[in-house]
């Protein structure tokens, strides 16, 4: 069984450094030194350095929500992979739908970021997923395959094993709608099969594939118990420590019980 990985994407929240540190410390206290489930927090970039300090002596990783593919240069407002590493980042979210659809990021641009992140030693959390219109048109697999192929272009097999994928159906992000465990498992299994075709069965079996989209403490266990769902990329529910810790506890329970 692959280790389950729960990551909190705080997006543009909270509004103060004090609140960010307090949230991180509450999660740290709840996680303790338990390494059974991998955990990471991805705050706004202005809080990254403070969270690295707040989470010291903790197994919790720190992730950025984005990065630029170039190592330096005239890119106003952007951050490089080296900068993220310097402030303590272990992970970086790439290709989130809010950047793909809201800011027009292409698979080719995301692919450049992916290679830069891996070169810098960061663990990429690569997001893929279809819109409601695409699902209703029966195009889920085609869209997901296209995003995978474009975003992973040029990647060798062994580095692929270190990439985390996050299947996030766009229609379930922040809407309160969640893919059923069956729907989510179906797409996760398709993704793993695609990886087996592109790389190998052995590599596909090692890749962690998270689910994202209105994950909460009360639905996490059913999702995480599915054979190809290896964790969750959590949005709104990661902004309150009790709810986020509830998801982590659900992951721990699945880890203890194993998957049938």
UniProtKB/TrEMBL annotation:
GO molecular function: triose-phosphate isomerase activity
GO biological process per UniProt: gluconeogenesis; glyceraldehyde-3-phosphate biosynthetic process; glycerol catabolic process; glycolytic process
Reaction(s) catalysed by this chain's protein: D-glyceraldehyde 3-phosphate = dihydroxyacetone phosphate
GO terms for cellular component: cytosol
PROSITE patterns from the UniProt entry: TIM_1, TIM_2
HAMAP family on file: TIM_B
Protein name in UniProt: Triosephosphate isomerase
Gene assigned in the entry: tpiA
